[in-house]
Specification:
4 strands, alpha+beta, Arc Repressor Mutant, subunit A, about 5% strand, DNA Methylphosphotriester Repair Domain, single chain, 4-stranded mixed sheet, globular, about 50% helix
Length: about 190
């Protein structure tokens, strides 16, 4: 099994089960019982976690003997230089979500203007780089709330929020819960 350096096995299972297209291109998952591999956004039935293995590329999954899903077609990648910029942006944000990121800083690292990046990202993902970043931070916070006993204030800064107010606002906007309510209702016995 190849585990992506940016995500734990448990996080990748959660991402695959949520069918979130924003993680497409960052990793692929394969189901041992069917011999099929998919994109994280595939709408097929969620497999049992003991039957999943992960790969960084579609080629890695093919070399391991898995065939591409006919539904999400993970091996079909139409070359589009703009999508390369989008995927580079997603990967940069994934790798630096704990930092104080601005659109200007992201754009400098991708090599294009902030205005063009903002427009391009919104057109291809239906969200801004800022909302994509917040989504990642909240997803990481959810993972920590469920699986650790870290204080909520520590989680806020651990996932990259600069203050508790923005953390609480983004968390409640995305989950409909405060972090305390979420931990109380959804955390596993630690």
């Amino acid at each position: 099994m190849v585990v992506h350096a940016k995500f734990s096995f448990k996080e990748m299972v959660e991402i695959a089960n949520s069918c979130d297209y924003s993680y497409d291109g960052l990793f692929f998952y394969a189901v041992k019982t069917t011999g099929i591999f998919c994109r994280p956004s595939c709408k097929s039935k969620s497999p049992n976690k003991e039957n999943i293995t992960f790969f960084q590329t579609a080629e890695d999954a093919k070399r391991a003997g898995f065939r591409p899903c006919k539904r999400c077609q993970p091996d079909v990648m139409n070359f589009d230089p703009k999508m390369d910029l989008i995927n580079d942006t997603k990967a940069y944000i994934q790798g630096h979500y704990t930092e104080n990121l601005t659109l200007k800083k992201i754009a400098q690292n991708i090599g294009i203007s902030p205005y063009y990046l903002g427009r391009l990202f919104k057109k291809h993902t239906s969200r801004t780089p800022r909302s994509y970043l917040e989504n990642i931070r909240v997803h990481k916070a959810v993972h920590l709330l469920k699986n650790t006993d870290l204080p909520i204030s520590d989680i806020c800064y651990e996932v990259g929020f600069q203050n508790a107010s923005s953390f609480y606002h983004a968390f409640q906007k995305q989950t409909q819960y405060t972090p305390q309510q979420y931990r109380k209702d959804f955390s596993y016995d630690l």
